[in-house]
Amino acid sequence: MLELVIAPNAKLRIQTKPVKKVNSSLIQILKEMVKLTKTFKDPEGVGLASTQVGLDGAFFVAKSGNSPAGEFISVINPKIISTGKGTKKYFEGCLSTPNLWGEVKRHLQVKVSYQDEKGQLQTKVVKGLLAHIFQHEIDHLNGIIFQDRVLKQGSKFYKFTGKDPAGADTFEEMTI
After folding, report:
1. Is the model's pTM score more than 0.90?
2. Which domains does the chain have, with CATH numbers?
3. How far is 131 from 82, CA to CA, in rounded Å?
4. What one-character-per-residue DSSP string does 123-145 give?
5. What are the pLDDT digits (tens) for 38-83?
6. Residue 28 above 80 pLDDT?
7. How do residues 156-168 score in pLDDT, each as one tens digit?
8. Distance separating alpha carbons of residues 68 and 66, to the nearest angstrom
9. CB 158 within 8 A of CB 142
């Protein structure tokens, strides 16, 4: 059973190693990672990198669309080939740092290559939320957590403080 690694655990700073072979053991781990990610509802889990479950292979799972079924893709040995010119600041969080959020500027579009769960090489241009997820998870595979980006970009941190009477999330700006 996989367990989520919580910051400041040093496992989140691991530089992952390329996966040499896609096999049944890896496929099982990827399935367990999807199950674990789906357990997070508030906030919703949309991606999970190997380092977040204490592993050192270069792979992650990501929610691939807005479908209610919550379809996920498995991404093995990912590389960002190129980035689009446009960027946007996103309000970003991470399952490994509960209740901490920050503003992170990321590319709106990235061209990526990776192997899927069949070991087939995929090259795609991903946009919007999926592009954001790819960049966040690839950062994890390189030992970078979103707080590093917030600090480097001189952005702000926020702490989740609960729900307002209407049920909306409330946040408080943090000074660091």
Report:
1. yes
2. 10-97+104-147 (3.90.45.10)
3. 12
4. EEEEEHHHHHHHHHHHHHHTT--
5. 999 877 899 999 999 999 999 999 998 765 566 899 999 999 999 9
6. yes
7. 999 999 899 998 9
8. 6
9. no
Structure-block tokens of residue 87:
């960027």
Return all residues near 91 (Cβ < 8 A) that are at least 6 apart. Answer: 101, 102, 103, 158
- Residue 163 tokens, joined: 């729900």
Query: Is the Cβ–Cβ distance between 89 and 105 less than 8 Å?
Result: yes
Q: Which residues are catalytic?
A: 137
Structure-token pair, residue 9: 């655990």
First-to-last alpha carbon distance for the chain, in angstroms, is 35
Give the DSSP H or E segment for 111: strand 109-115
Separation of alpha carbons 11 and 33, rounded Å: 16
